[in-house]
## 1
Amino acid sequence: MLTIILFGIIGSMLTRDPLAYSSHFAEPPNSEYLLGTGNFGEDVLAQLCAGTRNSLMIGAIAGSIAMLIALIVGGIGPYKGGLVDEISNAFTNVVMVFPMLPLLILLAAMLEQRSMFLVAALIGLTSWPWAARCIRSQVLTLKERGFIDVARMSGMKDRKIVVTEIMPNMLAYIIIVFVVSLSIAVLTEAGLSMIGLGPDPGSTVTLGSMLYWVMNSTHAALPWNLWWCFIPPGLILTIFLVAVFIMHTGMDQVFNPRLRKV
Amino acid sequence: MKNPFAHPFAKFVLKKIFFYSVVAFVALNFIFLIPRLMPGNPIDQMIPSGTTDLGRLRLKAELEKYFGLDRPLYEQYFNFWANLLRGDLGYAVMRGYNFRPVADAVMAKLPYTLVLVIPVLFISYFLGNWIGARAAYMKGKRSEAVYFTSVFASQMPFYWFAMVLLFLLAVNFRVFPTGGTFSPRFIPSMNLASLADASRHYALPFLTLLIITTGGWATGMRSMTLYELDSGYILYARQLGFRKKKLASYAERNAILPQFTGLNINLNNLIGMTMIIEMVFAWDGLGLLALDAIRSRDYFMMLGTFLVTMIVVILGNFLVDLAYAFLDPRIRTGQGG
């Protein structure tokens, strides 16, 4: 059911893409423009599709970066144990306390030109601690399993154990952590874009930039009662996030048998 | 005599103090590093755009000298710490601030942010946990309705929810003002009229934050309570014929403790959320100040707001940890655990 929602979003992205203005200003939803038009005649549905695609793309890039750091910090530490573990764990804890959103706002504000990739990279660099912690706990439980000991006793190299024994067993877990990181990144990106700190809102449409134009005084959909301009992007975000959340709790029950009965 | 530091509670506090000092140290180094590492030079921003090339060079050299940027890096670093410890964060160059010290300006805005963050943090904690605990006992349709409402509330993008509320309650029904802290042309003073005026402006940002955070607590508490209700000691107590109320109090007391550790992360998120919500509702706090600073490229102000937010978060986290130690009997008495 959830995958259907996700696929619905991905499918809808493939339909249209324009950023163009038309002569139909501020029309409510009608048969030609299914979701209406904005104050300058932008097609809201087309923007929505392009925005969803771009937002998910940013989320995917940011999620991958976060995952990569998380795998390194959260994966190697507990496996090696000892001092390496202490350091990596302390590092994660220190970063965890940081208020990431203000830091992100500051970093984004310092950049003159923000491309999609740059924003994604920033989000990725600031959002990994949560993923690192999840992976750490998972590695810790896996490490104690018998087959790892067998592998170690049979003289396998550490790297080979990690790649061939631990990773395949964690793959499903890694994927779910990645999806959650992605959803957090999408949410963060939209928030950044909404206050005008995302990728250039003039040339890149994201779900956040749609909200930015709604708030921005020149387009100002809010005082004009153009509800169809800002309800859809938020709704898509909400549906997406709720779906990921339910997926996540579902997977939690799989990986944490004690929760299963609940 | 017994060593007072040997007591587990003291040990815990010392450990936490050490930990948060490290965090603060790292955070403050960030303040030093960020403008030096990021592309784009604050000095370039200060030079008016009409300046000739030669003038630009000379002005740049002059400004760098003025801000001590021509010194070697280690000296800059020491100066940075010296200024910081003196509470000198530079001067606001943005419009409307007339070179007021940044520390001053930020401190003046801080109460407005705290007045949003602190009540939301506590009210949502109690309200959310109460709803969550109740939701754990509900059955059938009602349970599902409550669960989905709270999931929905917690997963909604908060800035979007703020806009929806703004649209419904302020633009369409005009119940609340659309933004600001006081009505335009209203001169705030210490009387009831300005309190009433401020609280009308306060309602929307407060509600937004409250609903979003409450949803998060409620979902968490619901699953925690369900989990505890399912555990051995409750089953045993039920077999013994304990009253339902007694059972509930046992389960909830155990369920709320892990929830309390979530307060840390919640505080971090809440600060970030509040900054953006302030921008949406033009509530006159740190977030709005940061946005103004960003728009007018005032680097001192940007770093200043960030610094103060950071300190608030670190202090808040420390207090939460202390409170946790106080509540958890294992740490308080030093037995078990």
Note: Residues 44-80 of chain A form the longest helix (37 residues).
## 2
Amino acid sequence: MHLLLASIIDTVRQLGWGGAFELLRNGIVLGSLYALIALGYSMVYGILKLLNFAHGDIYMVGAFLGYGVFTQLGAPLSPVVSIVPLLILTFLAGMLGAGALGVVVERFAYRPLRNAPRIAPLISALGVAFFLENSVLLLTNGNRYNYNAFALGGDPNTGLPGTLFDPVFSVDGRPVTVVQVLVVATSVGLMVALTLLVRRTRLGKAMRATAYDREAATMMGIDTDLVITSTFFIGSVLAGAAGVMFGLYIGETYHFMGFLAGLKAFTAAVVGGIGSIPGAMVGGVLIGLTEAYATGYVGGQWSDLVVFGILILFMLLRPTGIFGARAIQKV
Amino acid sequence: MKKLVLLPLIATLAVAAAGSGGASTQSPAAAGSALIKCGKTRTIGMAAPLTGDAASLGLQQLRWAKFFVSRYNRAHKTKKFRLVQGDTQLPNTAQALAVAHQFASNSKILGLVGPAGSQEVQDTVAVYKAGGLAAVTGSATRVALTRSKPGKPRETPNGWFYRTVPNDDQQGARVANWIDKQLKKKRIYIIDDEEAYSQGLADQVQALLSARSGFHVSRDHVSQSVSDFSSLITRIPANTQIVYIPWQLAPKAQLFFTQLRANGKRAIVFGSDGLFAPGTFNAVGSYVSAFPIDFNSAALKAYTKSHGGKAEAFGLPSYTAALVNATAIDKACKDGKASRAEVHKFIKKTNLAKTKTLLGFSVRFLSKNAGASQGPGDMAAPADFAIFHIENGGKYVRVG
């Protein structure tokens, strides 16, 4: 144990402030993606008390749909449109496609089980997750696909990065690139839009009412089926956006990418307070930062251990999460 | 009432009987000693990960083995081969064992290509041996599979495991010497992907370079499931000259390279044979150790043309493994009948010309220890690794 601590202290000293900043940057970018996925978990749990374990795979499908449009438009080496419309179309494909898939999954895998015992939709969610993973595995033969946005606008001969990886600014020589700013800005923008939708619109009011008491909401004339469908759509759209951004920032898209990302986003949702939208955002960033600093200071083989260790700690010490409220049970 | 019980039972038995059509199932020992009529079509079993995390590697191997079979069948009118596939789902040991039992019990199978992973070879070779099948693999490179060392016994029974790839020690020694003598770089950062193949090579190169004076060698690990390498890259000191990544997944290595450059780090990346993937691992300026493949060979060009322009070199040794089996089976079948014992005998005596193997060297198997790291089942000299440099446009050029 003391050897590990000594190694960590040594690494902190070696990496210095520049390294600390770099890890902060990495954590915020990664955390933004986790936050977007976690929002879907929280929203669905808030309304239906269902842990939608297929959500990570909807994120995966969103990434693939975005990849399809991105490459069909000739990117990264010979795009037929300029970079801004290229990115808009890629995002739309990933987001709307994922949204549509979320609606279909809710309609056929969860709605028929709404009045069944709680375990039934949970098992169905697991089944949907495996179904999606294996469907994509069959379609892709297990191959991994790379957006290679690195090469967009770059020189394939020299291997040096293109436009999306140009530095916007640097701190102690550590660059913050265009794509990193894009990921964080887009994530923040989507989270703000979601917050406004939930707080300021009729649909948002209906969502809050349904989350509070579904039966009562129905009796008050709210079309709870539509509200639930909308929730799934919005959550899946956010996951699709995260999938596309992951593809642009990291590159890789493959059938199993949703599994670990989904688990970490689920951890983020729990840490933040399952059912809480601000909780999902904060939890996502927290998990991203934890992963970055654990990898950077302790080592890559420790990061998952630390992240899921945090999940266990929160379940033991504060099961409602950071923003979750204790539910009062009438006896 | 009796009818209600009997009818579904009979139906089940009928379905089971129909399902086993095409395979003669016996106990492994019986299948091992059975003398079968060779007929026009002979059967080779192929054990590889066709689904799961390593599917991209296993499918390359399958495609190369099928390529061998289709070329052979086109060239021969009176005798053909067919492949029976077994999906081992590396690293799923239970599945690898299930495939081993299935193949061992199927008396039609006269030869075996695979298994792919070093761990699954260790786990399943006893089952194959019981069935009289010698494993001939195109990828399991762990040294201990063929050579015992102090504190580490040999992991397979002598005479039952052969490989058409050089082992990790040969590759590690080649890489260490190249870094030291040719590239003359001293600050090395080694990252393994936590799999047996990668750790073995990483250990080897680390030990060899650390023992030489003037070298600064650091070691790190990353899981194969990771795609975001940004924080791992933060750990790499800015003055690192070479990052050695003996990984199996070329798409991951390409991701790592692009992220390394995007983070402003200019270290040279050096990959192992698992990353020999023109078209996938296009890291300009990087080096890769791999087999001395002849890119001008007609067979390689034909494969590349028929597979979307991809050479899929990781799978190429499985072509050679299939060739080893086919040659042995042909010899055993000269009198129209063959047993696995006969095929095994001819596998031991394999002697294939360089022009046939596609590996850039002839293939003969050692029957005893050779040098510091080779043992029975390894390929005899001149089998060794070559060094390739990736140049502008992702072109692989052999430099050593």
Note: The CA atoms of residues 1 and 24 of chain A lie 26 Å apart.
## 3
Amino acid sequence: MSTTTVTPEAVEAVIFEALKGFGVEEDLLSRDAEITALDIDSLDLAELAQVLDDELGVEIKGDDVKGITLVSDLIDRVVAKAA
Amino acid sequence: MSRVVVTGVGAVTPLGVGATQLHEGWVAARSGIAAGVGACSDFEPTAVLSRKEARRADRCTQLALGAAHEALEQAGFGPGLPYDATRIACVLGTGIGGVTTLEHGHDMLRDRGPDKVPPLSVPMMMPNAPAGQVAMHHGLRGESYGVVSACAAGAHAIGAAMRMVRAGDADAVVCGGAESALTPLTHAAFAALDATSTSGISRPFDARRDGFVMGEGAGVLVLEREEDAIARGATILGVIAGYGATSDAHHLTAPHPEGEGAAEAIARALLDAKLEAKDVDYVNAHGTSTPLNDRAETLAIERALGDHAREIPVSSLKSAIGHLLGAAGAVESIATLMALRDGIAPPTLGWEEREDGMELDYVPGEARKLVTRDRPPVAISNSFGFGGHNAVVCLQGAAA
């Protein structure tokens, strides 16, 4: 587990970096972006969960991301889960 | 019964990206083999795929998508499909599938534990991934599946596709094969079987041959009914005239020593094409450069074609690009169609020494003109696989 503090800023940085690696255009990335607009699907979320576990030690399951629409929702869920 | 014609071909091979590169390279006796392997060094996946698509595809699927892009473009399948999407099928073979992905996933499991195995492992390594991904990428909504029959998979896929079109189950079928297995595990495993060449030289039918040289690549063809192709103004590149397939039921890896099952497959392909042995102008051999295959195949060709076998050219593309395993049959049918179009028998590179009892004309040195007849030339293309699978495609050039 990493010793990085799980702040919203840290979560955002990890998520943005991972999504860029998944092929999402950098200029589309923002907290207000809609998940669907970034063409993120269930496979991306499964990969992202692994990255979040690796980088921040936060375990995210499918149920944790149910019903989210914005990138900021995702960041909030991860921060809440880490608390 | 309608004839089944080819209206698009695409190939990514050690001779380059494109069917023309394959054809011209082989006819010019160029080798795509370097340091004992046939790698597709010129292939850049993002030339036809988004970064996201590329990272979700094992290299074998990337190669399939590259070849399919070329074949469908040539056939005039985009933008906008010429048939109802649910009437366009996709059948692609592979010998091993996404083994690069499998090995990486296993490394992660062993070194970092089960939680670190990539979630994309299964969808990338499954042997039906090339068929599924090509169908998805091009919006083909008819029947689609992968064919798994080792080194006969590419030819089996063409056979299955031909039957679908003939039966009216599909208006068009995108078919072929893909392979990328130049991995440590696969190399070690074939070497442990003494199947691969220790010299790193692919010289099919030569007395000094010592095993196959592994290659990677993909070949994709678009098949449809002749009258439909003519009606929509497509260019006809050749005809899939017949198909025959059998099993040796003899040994897990060794061919029947007299080529019995292979000969039966050749005979069935000709029967299916309503042709006779004397009609065959060229044999595109499986010719792996293994001691066992090349002898058994020679006997099979003689058994199936009789005295005529020694009067026609027989050559192996594997001399130029190595053995593409599950892609071989598809790539070889494409190279054969293009050779028939030009009335040429391409050479078996490296053939110099005759082995006793192997008396066919293996086309050493350079390409040769086929004997001209009053109809387009006819060829058979042989593919045989571990497991005793034999699949033979009978091809005819397009009418001038």
Note: Residues 42-56 of chain A form the longest helix (15 residues).
## 4
Amino acid sequence: MTNWINAKAIKASSFIVIKQIALILAALLFATIFLKASQFEAWAIVNGIKTSLTTDLAGTIRWATPLILAGLAISITFKAQVFNLGVDGQLYMGAAAATVVALALPNQNGVLSLTLVFVAAMIAGAVFALIPALLKVYFDTNEVVSTLLLNFIALLYMEYLVTGPLRDPDASTNLNASQALPENTWLPRLDYFEPSAANVGIYIAIAMAILISFVYYRTKLGYEIKLVGSNPRMATYGGMMPKRTTIKVMAISGALAGIIGAIEVTAIQHKLLAGFNPGYGFDGIVVSLLANNNPVGVIFSGLFFGSLKNAGINMERFTDVPSAVTEVVMAIIILTISAEILMPKIIKRIKISKKNKAHRQEVSQND
Amino acid sequence: MIDMMLNSEVLASMIRIATPLTLAALGCLMCQRAGIFNIAIEGFMLFGAFFGIVGVMFTGGNVWIGMALSMVAGTILAALFGLVIIRFHANMIISGIAINLLSLGLTSYLLRAVFDVQGSIRALNIEKLSPVNIPFLDAIPVIGPALNGQSIITYLSILLVILVQIFLFRTKQGLNIRAVGESEDAARTAGVSPETVKWFVVLFSGLICGLAGAYLSTTIVSEFTENMVQGRGFNAFTAVVFGNAHPIAVWAVTLLFGFADAVGIQIELLGTGIPPSVVKMFPFILAIVALTLSSGIQKFKRDGRSLRSLSIKTLKIKETKSEEEE
């Protein structure tokens, strides 16, 4: 084995992958039994995922894009032991900023205006994430509660925007949405998957995942985040400032959430629509947990949950199976991961029994 | 303006709106006292709201059975939460989020599976609880008419506030709960089982939040809508933090949130031109300000103390140094 491959690390990570796959299978099995018990088609969800990964890959990519970004936004905060449950709110703010900028820009160069739109969305998301971060640092306000409450404020603010100042004056009375964005600010969709909503956003998401893993493993900030997350006292002792790290992490997380908002607006809706977000923030928690907070792992777990979400939507559309069953699957996955129910207990037991055996042998030899 | 906001009608709706918050906050408060960070109450409430309507629909309109069923359902969901956090030591925040997600998914799913409808279901045959009339209350100006004629659950919630206050601060079991919250190891040394105490408070919160949910779906309205709790659980949690997990203070805070909501409805009814979404933001902004104030005051108290001790220490060090130099 060459020096740069750490055999132990590979063994550990492959073990995690096997563990997570076992967990997914268990959750899907549970969902199947559940569907069977309530007299729907039992294999609906398994078939749905199969379709999502073969014929309807476009749908999977469409849903995986926001989920990967949300997973990244959550994972970076989890690493630093901060809880940002306000990804939804930051996403709304990003979407609103993207819309405002896109509508205000003069019709010019596409790439330049798109960049401006995305930068605006990232700033808006980061600034909105800074509110709970600063409150936490200066007033010790619990960020779990403040971010949850800020979600509702952002949602209502967006509702206010699309019913008031940004509302399209020509829209029909019952549709609350902004004017359509000018075409030069549309994020291109993937030609191969026409006419679906799969778009260039997936490249942005993957690039972000690689960027974040670079930050983790190759920069001072990444080291700070890991150390502050695992042992804030030692980090302080080592001359770091955990509070400053908290602020940085929240800003990055908010900026990532802002990108989701910008992608949803510029690539999918092409306008600001009231309540367009199907809870990506909480889905991001599942994505991040399944990937063990590893940014590259987030790409794969985001793709899996994208396919699951797509399967749910297809099920709702083509069969009578409610898509809510996918939420149940997600909840089961979070609960089992956070409780570490499946594997560690069993392994611990095996280890203990091995130890006991060895001990017994020793004792018998001594006799 | 003040007349418009402080009449007995607004106060009555304040008490009505605050009732589920008070009930949920009492459950959350007990958990907080035992050191459990319980944001799953949002999910418990949603579960209760759904099963309240289920009970009503299947018994031909009996609200009592609906409420009993919702309490059972809330307790079952709480048992799952307890299993994960007490037995398996999972992270409370993440498990709480998972429970909320599970509750949202399961209720939407069962709505389709059991009633074959999507979005919401109305209980047409419901026999609502008749408001309780207490004659002597009317004699008190403003507050009297507001307090009178509420649902029996409202009076029950006020009674529970007092009972929880007595239970926590005047009984041995209450002391045990607080001891577990302060220091688990110390409690264990004193012969209290932290696991038993935690199971008790978690199941209690499930029971009472189930009732709070049933109050939402069977008393305030007579229907169940997907995700109908809409952050009330989080607001109740904020009330617990702001009220420092003290039953009477927490009750006062829930009343404050109820008041903010009631004033919002009043403003909307009067048509002052303020957009309804901005008005609806008000309780949430109030909650954040409240949260920041309470945690900020605590922080400054603590910092003030440590600063003072720090300055004394540095003075002493300086003194000793100067002495040495001499």
Note: Chain B touches chain A through 49 residues (CB under 8 Å).
